[in-house]
Amino acid sequence: MSSLENRIEVLHADITTLDVDAIVNAANASLCGGGGVDGAIHRAAGPDLLAHCRPLGGSRPGEVTFTPAFDLPMKAIHHAVGPVWRGGNRGEPDLLRRCYLQACALCAQHDLASLAFPAISTGAYRFPRKQATRIAVQAVREALAAASQPARVVFCCFSESDAALYRTTLAR
């Protein structure tokens, strides 16, 4: 394994409990919570996260917004608004790629050594899992090759089948 690959890990775990400096929230455009991982992160972070996000005015697909982690055990949350899948010919792959690159760039800007990602846009936004996983792995590899921070990236998967998909993709 190359030193780059030693910086990437795959876990089947609850992202809100990880020992990392920052986590990525697969956020909706309002940044004010929703279902899935977004709802879980908002619940675990406590009401101060919602109070902080409301005046931000939301975000657009492909953008990542930095907030403190409030009641979570990490330092920060990177709220990535992934694209809704509409067939793949409306810029969805590039928007998803930008989410991963921007979240990694925020680590360098805020001196955060470790970052955990959920699978962005693959739930309610229906992005095909295999394609989303390839994009995620490629973008993270690109970001890690270009910068020393984050020193460690975790792909935190909701299911063991998703974790297996990430492991297979990383092995290629």
Helix percent band: 25-40%
Distance between the termini: 11 Å
Which structural class fits the helix and strand makeup?
Answer: alpha/beta
Q: Provide the residue-averaged pLDDT.
A: 96
H and E string: EEHHEEHEHEH
Number of strands: 6
Radius of gyration: 15 Å
Low-confidence runs of at least 5 consecutive residues = none
Strand order of the biggest β-sheet = 1-6-5-2-4-3
Biggest beta sheet summary: 6 strands, mixed
Number of DSSP helices? 5
The percentage of residues in β strands lies in: 15-25%
Specify the overall morphology.
globular
Written account of the structure:
- The chain is an alpha/beta fold and 172 residues long.
- It has a 6-stranded mixed beta sheet, sandwiched between helices.
- Strand 3 and strand 4 form a beta hairpin.
- The longest helix is centred in the middle third of the chain and has 19 residues.
- The protein is globular.
Label this structure with key terms:
six-stranded mixed sheet, single chain, 172 residues, alpha/beta, 38% helix, 6 strands, 5 helices
Give the secondary structure arrangement, pairings included.
Layout: E1 8-12, E2 22-27, H1 36-45, H2 47-53, E3 64-68, E4 76-81, H3 92-110, E5 114-117, H4 129-146, E6 152-157, H5 160-171
Parallel strand pairs: 1-6, 2-4, 2-5, 5-6
Antiparallel strand pairs: 3-4
Helix pairs in contact: 3-4, 4-5
Compact overview of the structure:
The protein is an alpha/beta fold and 172 residues long. The chain is 38% helix and 19% strand.
